[in-house]
């Protein structure tokens, strides 16, 4: 798939949150990438804008191509630009498939493309840098999947949780997920007629977000993976209708403004 990185729809949306900046693009079934430059990690890599090449670690939530499409580009460009090999964290079930993809790459390029692969099982961890650790947790999707927490290595404080594609499940009850300062999750379905579709396809529905806001302590909940058929201003109207006033300031959308509308 050709991705035109000059297309405004592929320019990362920047969210400045207290103590954390996120930059990402996320459209269900097309591309999802959520970059946390302060934490040295990019979650999923459905496309790879230039800034993401500086990120040493990519944590993949699951193998669907809207979340993995630009992995090879990321590893290849880091190599071409003489950077350290990209580190790829993934659910342990898909580690062999990524290795096979890299083996095919060796055959195509006739030279090795360096990379570091760290397949994780739920509750396993890997360091991100000297001060931060990435911890995996089980999520529920139609294929093998993981969510990730960025925790402060010294005191184990959970700073950021990222679920990737997921339906409702016990992972939202985990103390570390509930206490993360920022929770990035998905909301693929908004319409009331689509509750069953959300369940069947392993995704969250807007009504789940209402429960989620009562359950978790995050000061900000970022919603990704909106449908490309849902204009953002309509999504905002629906959110304001459904989400109790006391929670409204906590919710941010990682989605593109339609032309003429400024992202806030
Ligand atoms: Zn997806
Ligand atoms: Zn998926």
Verbal overview:
The chain has 264 residues and is an alpha/beta fold. It has one domain (13-253): Ribonuclease Z/Hydroxyacylglutathione hydrolase-like (Metallo-beta-lactamase, Chain A, 4-Layer Sandwich). Helices cover 23% and strands 27% of the residues. It has helices spanning 65-68, 71-80, 95-109, 175-179, 195-200, 206-215, 232-242, and strands spanning 13-17, 20-27, 31-36, 41-43, 57-59, 86-91, 115-120, 125-127, 132-138, 146-152, 158-162, 182-186, 220-224, 251-253. The strands form 2 sheets. The chain has a 7-stranded mixed sheet. A 7-stranded mixed sheet has the order 8-9-10-11-12-13-14. Strand 13, helix 7 and strand 14 form a beta-alpha-beta unit. The two termini are 30 Å apart. Mean pLDDT is 93; it is low at 258-264. The structure holds zinc ion (2 copies). One zinc ion (ZN) binds next to loops.
């Amino acid at each position: 798939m050709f991705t035109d990185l000059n297309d405004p729809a592929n320019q990362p949306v920047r969210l400045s949150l207290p103590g954390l900046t996120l930059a990402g693009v996320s459209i269900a079934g097309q591309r999802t990438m959520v970059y946390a430059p302060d934490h040295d990690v990019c979650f999923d890599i459905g496309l790879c804008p230039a800034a993401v090449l500086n990120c040493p670690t990519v944590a993949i939530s699951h193998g669907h191509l809207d979340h993995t499409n630009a992995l090879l580009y990321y590893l290849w460009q880091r190599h071409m630009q003489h950077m350290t090999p990209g580190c790829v964290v993934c659910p342990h079930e898909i580690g062999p498939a990524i290795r096979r993809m890299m083996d095919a790459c060796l055959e195509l390029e006739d030279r090795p493309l360096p990379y570091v692969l760290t397949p994780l099982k739920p509750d396993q961890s890997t360091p991100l840098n000297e001060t931060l650790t990435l911890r995996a947790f089980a999520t529920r999707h139609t294929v093998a999947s993981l969510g990730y927490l960025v925790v402060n290595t010294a005191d184990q404080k959970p700073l950021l949780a990222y679920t990737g594609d997921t339906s409702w499940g016990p992972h939202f009850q985990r103390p570390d997920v509930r206490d993360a300062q920022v929770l990035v999750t998905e909301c693929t379905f908004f319409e009331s007629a689509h509750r069953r579709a959300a369940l069947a396809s392993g995704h969250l529905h807007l009504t789940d977000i209402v429960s989620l806001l009562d359950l978790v302590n995050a000061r900000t909940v970022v919603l990704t993976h909106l449908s490309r058929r849902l204009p953002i201003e309509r999504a905002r109207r629906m959110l304001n209708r459904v989400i109790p006033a006391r929670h409204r300031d906590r919710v941010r959308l990682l989605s593109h403004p339609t032309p003429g509308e400024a992202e806030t």
